[in-house]
Amino acid sequence: MSTVFELQPGQLSLADIQSWWQQPQQLKLADSAYKAIEASAATVSAVLAKGKVVYGINTGFGLLANTRIPPEKLADLQRRIVLSHAAGTQEFMVDDVVRLMLLLKINSLSRGFSGVRPVVIEALQALLNHQVYPCVPSKGSVGASGDLAPLAHLVLPLLGEGQVRYQGKILSGAEGMKIAGMETIALGPKEGLALLNGTQASTALALHGYFQIQRAFDAALVVGAMSVEAAMGSRSPFDERIHAVRGQPGQMEVAKQFRKLLGATSEVAKAHENCEKVQDPYSLRCQPQVMGAVYDQLVHARAILEREANGVTDNPLVFADSGDILSGGNFHAEPVAMAADILAIAASEIGALSERRSALLIDHHLSNLPPFLVTDGGVNSGFMLAQVTAAALASENKSLAHPASVDSIPTSANQEDHVSMATFAARRLTDIARNVVDIIAIEWLEAAQGLEFRRPLKAAEAIESAHACLRHKVAFYDQDRYFAPDIQAAAELIAAGELSQLLA
Asked: Which residue windows are transmembrane per the record (predicted)?
């Protein structure tokens, strides 16, 4: 039985969103939400009854905003906008993202500023609760005037159109509505536009990327600490006093995590307390400074995304208390685009630093470990090509991290003359995150291998736990073997959040 989650509109926490990202639940809309929803829909009806001309309710859209639509064609107008705007292309978004899109759209509409009837929200809720996920193509949005194409595909099933994915099978939208126990809907005035306007696609994609990057960040701290042990690195760079005098909060927090991970019980550390080495390379020594900067950007980006997930981002907005319906630009996803760009840069730096530690560990002159971390070198190539793979992935991320928000291509005959590119900015986070996870996986394999060469000395308790976690899936590399499965096994552990638990 799935967990029942009661939604108070506009009050989703990041933890709430992550729980929905991780697994399906049953959504119940708080009873108190219906008053605002019904008042908003009634305001739209009242405006129409007075014969007022209001954008998106009885006019065309975009550059056609000055075209008045007669009353007998209003229902057809809303249906046609959904059908015409469902113009996305290429592979479908994964269910985890579509589930978040549904959740965020319900959350936004339920705030009571969109003018939609309860039945529309209930239809989306039924799809979500029955795990009937609309098939949403991944490409075709510029992130203003909202995520029009993805959101159109998201709501096509309400009209009995489009496709859904249910239990891994692709079905028609009409079949999906039957499984959800709902009849198809004839959209009322403004409802098609309210469903299509908004930033729920780009926000869901950005959150999907954020959660993956957060797990990669956690893993990089643990694996980076393991590399310090394997390379017999100094503990002094993590001294609290160093970071306090600079005052950067992320740097201080990361140094604190390293002190916890490296602990006071390490036999490896005690074995080289009086070594002559003065300083370690930056990839070991400057982890608090680099990863601390990443930490600060993660905090900044997640605050923006949490606010956006709770915001009302369609247009026009209905203010029932005054009877006003106001046109604005909340659909412009620039906050999401910039947050995603920040995440892309930060994530790429996680991978760049990890790749440098991988290079350090295989270099006998820097690590004082066997060349390429294997005995009988020459006959065995060891970790030589694994580090090459890490370098390739780190290089790829440099291109992927180029800011998307600095680009804009005008659309809708120049009515929409500046756009955010937020949907791409957010979508490419998954590619970057996967690259980073693989890079860290390679470092993890190397650092664990390095620890084996320090035996019988034991590392700090948390590091030994991370070593045991890996060895449960991947054996010591005693001679050359098929390497790719080792990387995949380590990456799957990281992606599942196994190393995040060591930071709790």
From this structure: none
